[in-house]
Design goal:
- The complex is a heterodimer of chains A (517) and B (491).
- Chain A has helices at 8-16, 22-36, 48-63, 106-113, 156-163, 180-185, 220-230, 248-251, 265-268, 275-290, 306-321, 336-339, 356-368, 371-384, 390-413, 436-440, 447-452, 481-494, 503-508, and strands at residues 43-46, 75-79, 117-122, 169-174, 189-192, 212-217, 260-264, 294-298, 416-420, 456-460, 471-475.
- By secondary structure, chain A is of the alpha/beta class.
- In chain A, strand 2 (75-79), helix 4 (106-113) and strand 3 form a beta-alpha-beta unit.
- The longest helix of chain A has 24 residues, at 390-413.
- Chain A is globular.
- Chain A starts with 7 loop residues before the first helix and ends in a 9-residue tail after the last helix.
- Chain B is α+β, with helices and mostly antiparallel strands and 491 residues long.
- Chain B has helices spanning 53-65, 167-183, 226-247, 295-303, 309-320, 324-331, 335-348, 351-368, 380-391, 397-410, 414-420, 428-440, 443-450, 458-467, 473-485; strands at residues 3-14, 73-74, 77-80, 90-93, 100-108, 116-128, 132-136, 143-147, 154-160, 196-208, 211-214, 218-223, 257-262, 267-270, 283-284, 291-292.
- In chain B, strand 13 (257-262) and strand 14 (267-270) form a beta hairpin.
- Chain B is built from 15 helices and 16 strands.
- Classes of the chains: A alpha/beta (517), B alpha+beta (491).
- The interface between A and B is large, with 45 and 31 residues.
Chain lengths: 517, 491
């Protein structure tokens, strides 16, 4: 069956015309997932029964003439950091192996209410910490464009699942670029909404003041459909914004004539920027000019402080958020006195001077967390310790304010900021995994939006010379997602950059829907 | 011994909210373990806290009654430590911007010198309670079970300045604080159920020649009554003084120690420190926005405080003419007792009799029948009517007691009780008959009265009551005296 599994709007239309049922769609999705798993490995859990059941329910509603939600019959993959009560939520960590949450995240509820069909949970860096999905405790995920390369991270499974044609929509989370960077590496579009736009209730926390859930898909218009369904105030999240949900699909057809497009000089002139990436951004700028936009140069003078600030704030919050995985209430428990009583004779069953309880905490956390998670917990614990708090955490909060002020100033000169999403296209699996600093620098252009809480969109630009996808990043002032959609949709109307599909899949015959490259 | 005792208190009070501080679970005591929980108070991944506005209102009310400043902005911080009864690995509390600060509480000096003491309040802040660890040793192998029903319950932590100078003053402070919080309806302050918990910090300032030496500070925990606080402090003062005499040691060179109070053995003992308790790594909770408190809200809360114990004491004295001692005893019974009192006064028109009855008969009946002022054995309406009959002279006080007992035990109305008890009004002729009868048997008493000892007549009242329980003793006494004065002679 040749289904347009890369487009929400086409799948909706096909169902409305009666050409295909939700059940037929999900059956095809399950086949494609199975085919993709050996080479791509995007999925950690495939919810065959739940998905088929949901699809049947949608078909039944349609047959009965009942009103259907905006995502009726649309297959969706969820990053395994979003709580679901009918599927495991592991955060790609041994710590939560087999964990099934007793509740659905707010966005999961909203997806279900919109009649979406959740087909499974996808791979990620453990607890969303990383930029290559290699920190998953379970499996590697490959980039569908070149399986020797990473799909990016931490929402690498979400991006790969869309790119390889298994679903038209995936949900990810973005703390420092974790939606946009994998979207860029996998040649798709990804949105990090304004902080507070989408409820975090049920998103397993990494860094609470930075985390935000967002959609990934090929078409900007599809992201707008998804955001319509998941955004909006939630009384269970005190940081969610009580602002009305606009119709962002309407924003996709807004003209950008006369808009000021700000080119971020610090990024375009950066030494570390790959020439192909620079060329891609410039090409996007020319297109926007052609659409009536006016190019202006803007400066974000504190941009060089983004990564250092981020790597204080995020680990501090993470060290606290991950304290709950202690083996007592949550997570796997390692207790020498029970697991290995012979070697632990003596008072309280402890081998060490710390006592049995502390041994249990240490052993459980060492066994449950991978090396990158442990590294960030240590960083954050150190930075919050007595005597260091002022020099690190407090200072980072002050710098964070300056960073937000930079953006506010830039948005007096420009309606939208344009720049690269990443310094280079997808790197190779294994290339940076032993060099955490190099990996952290992959966030160079994305963390600013998280620190300032502004919305940001990565969409495909012209590809690199070697055919690898490149993402260009659009950023807008808080709550101005409508501007991102207008500019993003303009580019996608004028170009076919987002229509390219991974060649490997095309030759493997898993029916990618290729339309003019 | 030339030293001053220096005591500061940390009081944790459970606020009377319907639901927990950051989720909608209920806060009732005694439910089966782990039944009052949800993803938020269990600390499950992805769950988030949302502030319970009611807790802020109650905390603000307590802060204002403690004469504290309520700042325009208050925020939430995470206090981080690992412990099995703390599911998130941190407690949401308030570190550097508490809900209330810089107040004081005034109360009568318990030394009996008639003055009052004013104790400074450093701060009062909101925080969530932890769960409860239950150590089960029955199975031979030590086993600990965790009940998280209490986790997330709102607490107000009230910290005093080290202004208290004696164990008795500490007890008096706590008594007044508890009373205040009960009048505010902020907490039920039930120590048995853990809704009021006290930690005491104590050390000594010893005069040694021209120097003042501060002994190391000791924090005492595990005290389950105000009396226990007083006794623990008394013990600790003696222990610290002896320790200082033998070993020296000052606050400057010795770390703060935590000791528990053993109520049975009547002594304090060293407690194991919490793991790495020295550094809680406080930082602002990113899940909770700071709370802005408008000036208008503060003023509204201030004007809604109601009448506080000190004001009630004054009013009982001025409005009803009660003695300071009686007013104090009544106010200390709590706001429900005052409501009961005022209702009885209104119906009986007799404040002093109402006061005496509440302090004696009603208080005793509440004890004996295990009731409370909220749920007294007899309604204030019925008691008020009963006492009005006494004040009107229709019933004497002792017979009213019989009626009171009857009503509590049998129920029914006053009239029914009176007729059941065979209480009738004795007419003047019958009283006079009785006087003649009793006087005839007591010539000595008549002589004593004629000799100027009017009180001698009291000896006859008991005899008269035995002959006729319904006779009004006052009437009887007066008639006897009248007869004697008129030159009564036996027939």
């Amino acid at each position: 069956m040749d289904l347009p599994l890369d487009s929400i709007s086409q799948l909706c239309a096909a169902q409305q015309r009666g050409e295909v049922t939700a059940r037929q769609i999900v059956d095809e999705v399950l086949v494609r997932i199975e085919k993709s798993q050996p080479s791509i490995g995007a999925y950690l859990h495939v919810a065959h029964d739940v998905a088929r059941h949901q699809a049947d329910a949608v078909d039944q509603k349609r047959r009965a003439g009942k009103p259907l939600g905006p995502l009726a019959g649309i297959p969706v993959a969820l990053k395994d950091v979003l709580c679901t009560q009918d599927m495991p939520t592991t955060c790609a960590s041994r710590m939560l192996e087999g964990y099934i949450a007793p509740y659905d995240a707010t966005i999961v509820k909203r997806l279900r209410a919109a009649d979406a069909v959740i087909v499974g949970k996808v791979n990620m860096d453990e607890f969303a910490m990383g930029g290559s999905t290699e920190n998953s405790a379970y499996q590697k995920t490959a980039n569908p464009w070149d399986i020797s390369r990473t799909p990016g991270g931490s929402s690498g499974g979400s991006a790969a699942a869309v790119a390889c044609g298994t679903v038209p929509l995936a949900l990810g989370s973005d703390t420092g670029g974790s939606i946009r960077q994998p979207a860029a590496f996998c040649g798709i579009s990804g949105l990090k909404p304004t902080y507070g736009r989408v409820s975090r209730y049920g998103l397993v926390a990494f860094a609470s003041s930075l985390d935000q859930i967002g959609p990934l898909g090929y078409e900007v218009n599809d992201l707008a459909v998804a955001l319509n369904a998941i955004a909006g105030h939630d009384s269970r999240d005190a940081t969610s914004l009580d602002r009305p949900v606009e119709d962002w699909t309407a924003a996709c057809s807004t003209s950008i004539a006369g808009w000021r497009i700000g080119l971020i000089r610090e990024q375009l002139d950066s030494d570390g920027l790959d020439p192909d990436v620079r060329a891609s951004v410039i090409a996007a700028a020319r297109e926007l000019e052609a659409a009536g936009g006016r190019l202006v140069d803007v400066h974000l003078p504190n941009a060089r402080h983004w990564v250092p600030t981020y790597y204080v704030v995020a680990p501090c919050e993470a060290s606290s958020n991950l304290a709950r995985y202690d083996g007592a209430h949550l997570g796997r428990r390692v207790d020498r006195a029970v697991d290995d009583p012979g070697r632990c004779a003596g008072e309280g069953g402890s081998r060490s001077s710390r006592g049995r309880l502390t041994d249990m905490y240490c052993d459980s956390r060492r066994a449950g967390f991978g090396v990158e998670v442990r590294r960030r917990i240590l960083l954050g614990t150190y930075a919050l310790s007595a005597g260091y708090y002022d020099a690190y955490y407090l200072k980072s909060l002050q710098v964070r304010r300056l960073i937000a002020d930079d953006f506010a100033a830039a948005f007096t000169q420009a309606d939208i900021l344009l720049g690269p999403t990443t310094p280079s296209p997808a790197f190779r699996l294994g290339e940076k995994i032993d060099d955490p600093l190099a990996m952290y620098l992959a966030d160079l252009f994305t963390v600013g939006a998280n620190l300032a809480g502004i919305p940001a969109l990565s969409i495909p630009g012209p590809a690199a010379g070697n055919g690898l996808p490149i993402g260009v990043q659009l950023q807008a002032r808080p709550l101005a997602e409508d501007k991102l959609f207008a500019v993003g949709a303009t580019l996608q109307r004028q170009t076919d950059w987002h229509r390219r599909r991974p060649p490997a899949l095309a030759s493997a015959g898993t029916a990618p829907h290729v339309r003019g490259v | 011994m030339d030293f001053t005792t220096v005591v500061g208190l940390e009081v944790h009070v459970q606020l009377r909210t319907e639901t927990k501080l950051f989720c909608r679970c209920r806060t009732v005591f005694g439910a089966p373990p782990n039944t009052l929980t949800c993803p938020t108070c269990l600390g499950l991944p992805g769950a988030l806290p949302v502030i319970n506005q009611r807790a802020i209102e109650l905390g603000m009310r307590a802060g204002l009654a403690l004469n504290c400043v309520i700042p325009p902005l208050t925020k939430w911080d995470r206090k981080q430590y690992f412990y099995p009864d703390l599911p998130k690995g941190y407690q949401i509390s308030q570190f550097d911007q508490p809900l209330a600060a810089d107040g004081w509480l005034e109360f009568t000096d318990p030394s009996g010198e008639g003055g009052s003491l004013r104790i400074g309040i450093v701060r009062a802040h909101l925080e969530e309670d932890a769960g409860k660890s239950m150590h089960d040793e029955r199975s031979g192998q030590a086993d600990t079970r965790i009940d998280l029903n209490r986790a997330g319950t709102p607490l107000l932590e009230i910290v005093t300045r080290p202004d208290l100078r004696s164990p008795a003053a500490a007890k008096a402070f706590l008594t007044e604080l508890k009373l205040l919080l009960q009048y505010l309806d902020v907490s039920d302050c039930n120590m048995q159920e853990g809704s009021l918990r006290v930690d005491a910090n104590v050390n000594l300032h010893v005069s040694a020649g021209d120097r003042l030496i501060e002994t190391p500070i000791v924090e005492i925990k595990n005290m389950n009554s105000f009396r226990a606080v007083e006794r623990a402090l008394e013990y600790e003062v003696g222990r610290q003084y002896e320790h200082w005499r033998q070993f020296g040691g000052t606050r400057q060179d010795t770390a703060k120690q935590t000791r528990g109070w053993d109520d049975q053995a009547e002594r304090t003992y060293p407690q194991r420190e919490k793991e790495e308790s020295s550094d809680y790594r406080y930082f602002p909770d990113p899940d909770l926005p700071a709370v802005r408190i408008e000036e208008a809200a503060i003023e509204a809360a201030r004007s809604a405080l109601g009448e506080l114990p000190a004001a009630v004491r004054r009013r009982l004295e001025t409005q009803y003419g009660l003695k300071p001692y009686d007013a104090d005893v009544l106010v200390n019974q709590g706001p429900a007792a005052i409501g009961y009192l005022e209702s009885v006064i209104e119906l009986s028109g007799d404040p002093r009799r109402a006061s005496a009855w509440l302090q004696q008969d009603v208080a005793r009946a509440i004890r004996e029948h295990q009731r409370s002022w909220q749920d007294p054995p007899l309604s204030s309406q019925t008691l008020g009517e009963l006492l009005r009959r006494v004040s009107d002279g229709a019933l004497d006080n002792n017979r009213a007691r019989d009626v009171y007992q009857f009503l509590i035990e049998q129920g029914g109305g006053i009239a029914h009780a009176i007729s059941s008890l065979g209480i009738t009004t004795v007419d003047e002729n019958a009283v006079e008959q009785l006087c003649h009868q009793v006087l005839a048997q007591n010539p000595q008493v008549i002589e004593d009265v004629r000799g100027g000892n009017q009180k001698a007549i009291s000896a006859l009242v008991g005899q008269a009551k035995r002959l006729n329980p319904n006779v009004n003793p006052g009437r009887f006494r007066q008639l006897c005296l009248d007869l004697i004065a008129a030159g009564w002679q036996p027939d």
